[in-house]
Design goal:
Blueprint: H1 13-39, H2 44-68, H3 76-93, H4 99-110, H5 121-144, H6 148-151, H7 153-158, H8 174-183, H9 187-204, H10 214-225, H11 249-268, H12 275-281
Length: 282
């Protein structure tokens, strides 16, 4: 249900005050999220999701190695695991936090975590400690041919992953989730779903759905709500011109915000306009 209110309608002062406070709070939260993204800092939820992906991918690799690789007759695999474990322990002992970039690079890319954030001591320590536990599981699986899922049950459950083979499948990304949702509905609704999916990928990257925090989802919805009307038709393409303008939704939003700010400044800068005239103009 939508509430349509004329600009000439007198609204209770308390309602206006609350709406302004809500909008300011949403705008401030969006600014904080964008600033955190620009600074390369990551939230606890992002770190947890990245570690979960590292655990999933590594145990899946151990299972595949155990089932498909030829037997390690000379002990080369065990020696490699031992060397990697020693390197991780050495990095922890020496506080060599940049080593975490090498360990978690793939998981960070999958979850769109900036690589520079991996060298943060708080994040790097979690990465290295988790990898050492994974290498312990790999060693037992290789030496004693134990089930990696059973050996890694505690670690999997610690990150919300059940100790089952289906939990080792790659996480669903935004693009995959969009297509899955669009495939099970009408053509008109599917078009809207794909549009929102494209905007989400444009904003976050094609990250796993589970990596998005509640605040990020709320910020995205607020961004959608404040997009200019008919923004999707402003590409300039038609049957005579197929080139058009390559602008993102964020570009449209920024352009509209600049236009609104200029209009507000012009209206409130005119001392000859009455309160009613200002409301009518805006």
């Amino acid at each position: 249900m939508f509430l349509v209110v004329s600009l000439r309608t007198d609204l209770p002062e308390e309602a206006l005050r609350r709406s302004v406070i809500l909008r300011d709070a949403l705008s401030e939260r969006e600014r904080q999220l964008m600033q955190a993204h620009a600074d390369g800092s990551v939230s606890e939820a992002q770190v947890s999701t990245m570690l979960a992906e590292m655990v999933r991918a590594t145990i899946a690799q151990i299972v595949e190695q155990q089932e498909q690789a030829p037997p390690d007759e000379g002990g080369a695999a065990l020696a490699e695991i031992a060397a990697r474990r020693e390197a991780v322990t050495g990095a922890l002992r020496a506080r060599n936090w940049p080593e975490a970039r090498t360990v978690a690079r793939d998981a960070a890319q999958t979850c769109a975590v900036p690589e520079e954030a991996l060298a943060d001591p708080g994040v790097a320590r979690q990465i290295l400690l988790t990898m050492r536990r994974l290498l312990d599981i790999a060693e037992v699986a290789e030496r004693d041919f134990e089930d990696p899922l059973r050996e890694g049950r505690d670690l999997l459950q610690e990150f919300g992953l059940p100790a089952r083979r289906d939990a080792l499948r790659p996480p669903m990304t935004l693009s995959a989730a969009t297509e899955k949702a669009a495939a099970s509905t009408s053509k008109e609704v599917a078009k809207k779903i794909r549009t929102l999916g494209r905007l989400a990928v444009e904003r976050f990257g094609d990250v796993p759905v589970a990596s998005l925090s509640f605040d990020e989802v709320v910020g995205f919805l607020e961004f959608i709500w404040w997009l200019p009307k008919h923004w999707g038709r402003a590409h300039g393409k038609n049957r005579f011109n197929s080139e058009g303008r390559d602008l993102t939704a964020a570009d449209y939003r920024a352009k509209a915000d600049a236009h609104d700010a200029a209009l507000v400044e012009e209206v409130f800068g005119d001392p000859g306009m009455s309160y009613i005239e200002r409301r009518r103009t805006l």
